Amino acid sequence: MPTPRTTAVRKGRTREPILTMSNIGKHFGAVKALTNVDFWVNEGEVVALIGDNGAGKSTLVKLLAGVHAPDAGRIQFDGVDVDIPSPADSHALGIATVFQDLALCDNLDVVENLWLGQELRNGLSLDEVEMEERTWMLLRELSAKLPSVRTPVASLSGGQRQTVAIARSLIGDPRVVILDEPTAALGVAQTAEVLNLIVRLRERGHGVVLISHNMADVMAVADRVVVLRLGRNNGIFNVADVTSETLIAAITGASLSPPMPATPHTDRTPATPDDTPPPEGIVSLVGRGRGRRGSTGGTR
User: Which of 71, 165, 166, 232 is least buried, going by the fewest C-beta atoms within 10 A?
Assistant: First the structure.
């Protein structure tokens, strides 16, 4: 596989690989879901994983979430070979996955959802005060907008529910956060809220894997895009050097996989004058993905 390369998308900041998957293969009977797939995530980076239905995105994520085990290839975390036999092992390793159904309890409030199954205790009783204070602290760090942490989840909007699910995944401070179609079925304002939340995760230093069919969302917040087609890699692109038309061509097979040069882990790419943090707000976020033209090579 092309050796993962550190990237510096913002001035003065470099990134080290956290998670690396090499030559991954997975089959279900006669069906080959993944064949020789390479994938990696750096710290403080948003990697979009895109592809048509049946491309292998969900299978790849389930391997990282501990739902399935790979039939071939290797998975490394911080450069060490690891096995992920169960969801509990994935969580313990530092990988948090937010699936599309969110798995929230509508009858419980925000605090109860965040700490469900990992409640803080003060002796024999629950430490409600500490859990509420930590919940507010986490939501403030994410610049999340919720009316109250004691509001039942059933009364929250789609974007607010997504916020709660993402905040819950951060309990335990994971290194990698996987978001499966986080803006699906959301309105414009709610989508903006979730995209800004993804930016906050990157600023906190998390490696973020974004699975999405929405090219506008991908161009808005992703630093790098990995395209899967029919269970194989069909392109790894820097968002700064690619257009949505190129990505769509890779998804549909209109273009072949571009070359992905191998570069050592220790490489550093100097920041360019454009490597500045994006301003807050959906208008500025979407603006990052417009008007870009350039080559479609591999990672910078």
Answer: 71
